[in-house]
Amino acid sequence: MIRSAWRRLVRFLGSAGLAIWLLVIVGVWSMVATLIPQGAATDHEVTVWASAHPLVEPVVRAIGLHQAFTSLLFTVCVLALGVCTALCAWKRTKAAMDKAGTLRRASVADERSLTARHDLEIACDPALSGAEVLSTASGTLARLGIKTKRRDEVLAAVSSPWSVWGSPIFHWALLALILTLAGGNLLRAQGLMGVAVGQTKVDAPKSYGVISAGPLYDWSRVQRSIRVDALEPDFVSGGIDRGPTPTVSLLDGAGNVIVKQRVYPNATLKSGSLTIYPVTFGLSTTLAMVTTTGVETGRGTLFVDFSEEATSGTTPVYHLGMTDKAGNLRYAISATVPLDRRGDLFVQAVPAQPTARVVVSSPDGKPVLIDTIALGEQIALPDAGGSLRLDGVGYYARLQVVDDWSIPLLYAVLFVALAGLTLVVVARQQIVLVTVVEGPENVRLVARVRLWRNSSSSRSEIEAELARALCADEMGSTT
C-alpha cells in the first residue's frame, strides 16, 4: 500500500503536466512581480504603491508579492519544479543509458549475431548474389538518407552512443538553472548608489539609497569601494551616442584600483561576482561647515536630480542633518541648483555660473533660512555660530550595483542547456544493420532497425524500398 502510494506520488511529481503548470505559475508570478515594487512594507516605493492601489494591496501583501522571489508560494513552486525536473531528468537518464548500451552492442554486431536476431527479413531475387544484394541495399538506404558503412558482410548505420544524451543534459541543466536561481536570490545583493565625481564610497549598506540583499548575503566579506572619476554627459563611441557616461573605478580594501572603465549600457563594469550598471545622472553640491574664524569643521555632498516641473530645473534627492553636541538633530539642510535655459527647456548640465539654492529647516520641517549662493560664498546659520560655504557644483552618477555569484554560473548552465537542446534537435538516433543469408534455395536479406529520433526515413518506408529494390515479395517483420 505504501509502496503503491509512493509510486503514484513519484509519477505525479515527474509528470509533464505538473511541470507545465508549475512553469506557467512561476512565469506569471515573475511577470506580475515586475509590475509591483519589491521591498519591505516600510519602503517608500512600497508605501506609495499601496496608497495608490488600496483595493489590491491587501491581496498583494497577503500572498507576498512585495517579496515575490522569496515568498513562501514562489519558493514552494520553485522547489516543486526542481523535484519535477530532477525526476524527469533521472527517467531520461535511465532511458539514455539503455539506448547507449544498445547502440554500443549494435556497433560491434557481426553477421552471425544479426542472422540469429533480426526483425526484418526480405526474400531477394534468386538472380542476385549476396554481394549484389548488399550493394543494392546500400544504395537504397543512401537514397533514403541513411548512409551505411560496410563491416565485413554487414552494412551498418549506427549512431554514436553520445547522441542519446542531449535530453538528459538539457533536463539536468534546467535543474541546475533552477537551483542556481534559487541560490542566487538567497546570496545576492543589489541596490542603487549615488556617487559624485571624485567621490569614493565604501560598498556597504549605508552607501546605498535603495538596497536589497538575500538573507544569506554576508556583508562582512565585502572589502571594496566605488569611485566615480569623471562623467561625460554626451559620450560618443563608434559613432554612437552613449548618453551620460561615468568613468568608474572599483577599489580593493586597501584603496588600490582593481578595474577602471567608462560604464554605459553595453559596457558594464564587471569584476568577479560584481556588476555595475549606469542608471542616470544629476548634479551634486558640496557644502562645507565653517566657524566664525574660517575653520572648516565638516563637509557634505548633496545630490539633486533634473526636473522639468521644478521652478529651478532640479529637485533635492535628500537632506543633510546637522546635530548639536548631544547628537540631536538641529537643522536639515537641502539644496537645488538653478539650471541655465535654452529656449523653454532647462539645460541638463552644470550651469555656466554655478549657484546653489540652500534651504535650512528646523527638525519639524519648517524652513528657517533660504538663500542662493555662488561658489566660495557663505551663508550664516541662525544661532549656530558658523556658516555654510558652497565649495563645488558638479555631476553625480547613480549606479546599480549587483553582487551575484550566480551570474557567471547562469551563463555556463544556459550554455550547457543550449548544447543539450542542440543535440536533441540535430543528433540522429538510429540502428540500421543489414546482412545477407545465402541458403540453398534463395538469398535473404535480414535487418535490424531501430529509429528513435531525427531519422530521415521510417521503418515501413525502409521495408518497402528494400523489397522493391531487391525485386521480391516482402516476407515482413519477424518481431
What does this structure look like?
The protein is elongated and about 125 Å long. By secondary structure, it is α+β, with helices and mostly antiparallel strands. Helix content is 33%, strand content 36%. The chain starts with a helix and ends with a strand. The protein contains ten helices and 24 strands. The chain folds into four domains: 91 residues, no CATH class; 102 residues, TATA-Binding Protein (2-Layer Sandwich); 29 residues; 215 residues, no CATH class. The longest helix is centred in the first third of the chain and has 36 residues. Strands 4, 6, 10, 11, 12, 13, 20 and 21 form an eight-stranded antiparallel β-sheet that branches. Strands 2-3-22-23-1-24 form a six-stranded antiparallel β-sheet, sandwiched between helices.
**Would you count the extended β strands for me?**
24
- The termini sit apart by 37 Å
* Low-confidence runs of at least 5 consecutive residues: none
Instruction: Give the rounded overall mean pLDDT.
Output: 88
- With helices defined by DSSP (H or I, 4 residues minimum), what is the helix count? 10
Q: What composes the largest sheet?
A: 8 strands, antiparallel
Total domain modules: 4
The helical percent reads 25-40%
Shape: elongated
Q: What portion of the residues fall into strands of 2 or more residues?
A: 35-45%
**What is the CA-atom radius of gyration, in angstroms?**
36 Å
Structural class: alpha+beta
